[in-house]
Automatic annotation (TrEMBL):
The keyword NAD belongs to this UniProt entry's keyword annotation: yes
A Pfam family per the record: NAD_binding_2
PANTHER family to which the protein is assigned, alphabetical: 3-HYDROXYISOBUTYRATE DEHYDROGENASE, MITOCHONDRIAL, 3-HYDROXYISOBUTYRATE DEHYDROGENASE-RELATED
Active site positions: 172
Any one Gene Ontology BP term: organic acid catabolic process
Record bears the keyword NAD: yes
Taxon lineage: Bacteria, Bacillati, Bacillota, Bacilli, Bacillales
Keyword list, A-Z: NAD, Oxidoreductase
Domain of life: Bacteria
GO MF term (any one): NAD binding
Name recorded for this polypeptide: 3-hydroxyisobutyrate dehydrogenase-like beta-hydroxyacid dehydrogenase
C-alpha cells in the first residue's frame, strides 16, 4: 500500500498526513481550503488531483472531515469516492459524524464491493502529531485487518469495536459526551478557584494526585487556560456537533438525561456568543464572562 489519498487537511488531517509522508508513503492531499493544500505541498505532499482522480488512482483513501454534510458529499457525490473507487480500494474515515451517515456510506460501498471502515479517533491534535491516537473502528474485521498497519502508523491504541459500521462512532460519541461533561466541570471549578484567589498552578498539582484529576483537566488547564490561549485544538463547534449527535440518540431512545440537557444548552450559548472557532476549553472564559455580566446585573439591581 504505497499511494494514499488524504481528504481533509485540517487540525487533525494535516499532522496525520504529514506522519504518513514521514513514514515513506506517497500522499496525495485534497482540501477545499487551498491554503491547507499549499501548506501540505510545502511539507512534501502532492496536491492538484481531483477527488475522482484520487479515487481511481490511490490504494487507500483516508478522510478527516468536519461534518456529516461534508462526509456524505465526499463519499456519495458524483465525483465522490464510492462512485469512482476501483475494486481493490480501501476507504478509511476517521471523522466523527452521524451514525446514520456511517450506515448510508457502508451500504453504498457494499453495493460496489468497496472495502470501507469507519474509525473515529481520540487523542486530539497532540495525539495526531505524536502518533498516539486511539482508533475506534466499526465495520468488517477483514477491512480492519487490511487497514490496521496504516492506523498503527498514525496511532498507538487501535480497537475493533464490532462488525457494525457505527460501533466506532457510538464509542467515540460516548467518549465525547464525557469530554463535554469534563470540560464544563473544569471550567466551573477553575473559575470558582480563581474567584477565591487560589494559585491555579498549585491547585492543579494537588488535584493531579487527587480524585479531581482528569485528562481533560490536564489538557484544558495546562495547554489552554493557564496560557490564556484558545487557538484549537478541538473547536467548541466540533464538540457541539458531537453533542448534537448524542442528543439525537437520546431523543430516539426516549431517554431523559437531565445533566446532558443542561450541557447542550451551555455549549449552545457559548457558540452563540461567537466562541465556536476557539478551542472547547474557552468555555472557561465564557463562564467567567457570564459571571461578570451576572455580577453587573446584580450591581444594577442594587
Ligand atoms: N481536533 C480534534 O482534536 C479532533 C479530535 C478527534 C476527532 N476529531 C474529528 O476529526 C474531524 C476533523 O477535525 P479537525 O479538528 O481536523 O477539523 P478541521 O475543521 O480543522 O478540518 C477539517 C478539514 O476538512 C476540510 N473540508 C471540509 N469539507 C471538505 C470537503 N468537502 N472536501 C475536502 N475537504 C473538506 C476543511 O477545509 C478542513 O481543512 C472531525 O470530524 C472532528 O470531530 C477532531
Amino acid at each position: 500500500m504505497k499511494k494514499i489519498g488524504f481528504i481533509g487537511l485540517g487540525n487533525m488531517g494535516m499532522p496525520m498526513s504529514e506522519n504518513l509522508l514521514d513514514s515513506g508513503f506517497d500522499v496525495y492531499g485534497l482540501d477545499v481550503n487551498h491554503e491547507a493544500e499549499t501548506r501540505f505541498e510545502k511539507r512534501g505532499g502532492q496536491i492538484g488531483r481531483s477527488m475522482e482522480d484520487l479515487a481511481k488512482f490511490c490504494d487507500l483513501i483516508i478522510t478527516s472531515l468536519p461534518s456529516s454534510e461534508a462526509y456524505e458529499s465526499v463519499y456519495l457525490g458524483d465525483e465522490g469516492l464510492i462512485r469512482n473507487s476501483h475494486a481493490n480500494s480501501l476507504l478509511l474515515d476517521t471523522s466523527t459524524v452521524a451514525p446514520e451517515s456511517n450506515e448510508k456510506i457502508a451500504q453504498a460501498a457494499k453495493q460496489r464491493s468497496i472495502q470501507f471502515l469507519q474509525a473515529p479517533v481520540s487523542g486530539g491534535v497532540v495525539g495526531a502529531v505524536n502518533r498516539t491516537l486511539t482508533f475506534m473502528a466499526g465495520g468488517p474485521k477483514e477491512t480492519f485487518n487490511a487497514v490496521y498497519p496504516i492506523m498503527n502508523v498514525l496511532g498507538e491504541n487501535i480497537f475493533h469495536i464490532d462488525e457494525r459500521i457505527k460501533s466506532g462512532t457510538l464509542t467515540k460519541l460516548i467518549n465525547n459526551l464525557f469530554i463535554g461533561f469534563y470540560t464544563a466541570a473544569v471550567s466551573e471549578a477553575v473559575a470558582l478557584a480563581d474567584k477565591q484567589n487560589m494559585d491555579l498552578d498549585a491547585l492543579f498539582d494537588v488535584l493531579s494526585v487527587s480524585y479531581g484529576q482528569s485528562r481533560i483537566y490536564e489538557r484544558n488547564y495546562k495547554t489552554f487556560i493557564a496560557n490564556d490561549d484558545y487557538e484549537p485544538g478541538f473547536t467548541l463547534k466540533l464538540l457541539r456537533k458531537d453533542m448534537n449527535f448524542v442528543k439525537e440518540i437520546i431523543e430516539r431512545e426516549d431517554m431523559h438525561l437531565p445533566v446532558t440537557d443542561v450541557l447542550m444548552h451551555i455549549y449552545e450559548e457559548a457558540e452563540e456568543a461567537g466562541l465556536g472557532a476557539k478551542d472547547m476549553s474557552v468555555l472557561y472564559e465564557h463562564i467567567g464572562e457570564q459571571e461578570i455580566s451576572f455580577q453587573s446585573k446584580k450591581e444594577r439591581v442594587k
